[in-house]
Design brief:
0% strand, single chain, Rna Polymerase Sigma Factor, Chain: A, Arc Repressor Mutant, subunit A, 221 residues, 2 domains, mainly alpha
Length: 221
């Protein structure tokens, strides 16, 4: 079938990107449809629909993966593989969540799998706590004010679980229900993590190195 593509997790990023580019030839951006309609088209082998979905969500998916794996090459490779999965399995989408939520669920699984393969240790490892999110993105370029820089530095000091919640809810604007679907936890657990993430963030922003800045007034929540 034309919409079945074998995904090789060990493929070089440029090869995977080439496959995606072959799948998604350029078409006028004005041909906009809902994400659900695009998935229906993709399930039927519609390459134009695949292009539109890719153009609409690839930056978001890439940034989400990058915040987990902290490696631009790996993030690019995994983002391409996410959309190859979409091309291959679009017909399996059941409509129980937004398409963007489904995409981030796939992205999260691939990113965490890559971390396991690369580091061979638990995802709650302590060294992740010390890694700053200094990746340069269009988002970061627009957020270079002193306040935003300090806020991001504070968020980078959160535990992985708490940082993930803040990222999904505030940067990807996901609801509590959607965040739970992406991570695979109950809504009550999402709310609990949100509470402690805010509490931990408040403590961090009150530390001496941040106390003299106005960023404390702009923390999420």
């Amino acid at each position: 079938m034309p919409n079945v593509i074998a995904i090789n997790a060990t493929a070089r990023p440029e090869i995977v990107q080439g496959i995606v580019q072959e799948i998604v030839p350029a078409i006028p951006a004005a041909q906009a449809s809902s994400d659900e309609m695009l998935l229906e088209g993709i399930a039927g082998g519609d390459r134009a629909a695949m292009h539109l979905l890719y153009a609409r969500h690839n930056v978001r998916v890439y940034r989400f993966i990058l915040r987990i794996v902290r490696d631009t090459s790996v993030a690019e490779d995994l983002a391409s593989q996410v959309f190859l999965d979409v091309w291959r399995t679009a017909g399996q989408f059941e409509g129980r969540s937004q398409v963007s939520t489904w995409l981030l669920s796939i992205a999260r699984f691939k990113a965490l799998t890559a971390l396991r393969q690369r580091r061979h240790e638990d995802l709650d490892r302590e060294d992740m706590l010390e890694i700053a999110d200094d990746a340069e993105t269009p988002e970061a370029s627009l957020d270079r004010s002193n306040t935003s820089a300090i806020l991001r530095a504070c968020i980078a000091k959160l535990s992985p679980a708490h940082r993930e919640i803040i990222d999904l809810v505030y940067y990807h604007e996901k609801s509590v229900e959607e965040a739970g679907l992406i991570i695979g936890i109950p809504q009550s657990t999402v709310k609990t993590r949100m509470f402690y993430a805010r509490k931990q963030l408040a403590t961090i922003t009150e530390a001496p190195e941040y106390a003299g800045h106005e960023a404390t007034g702009r923390r999420p929540g």
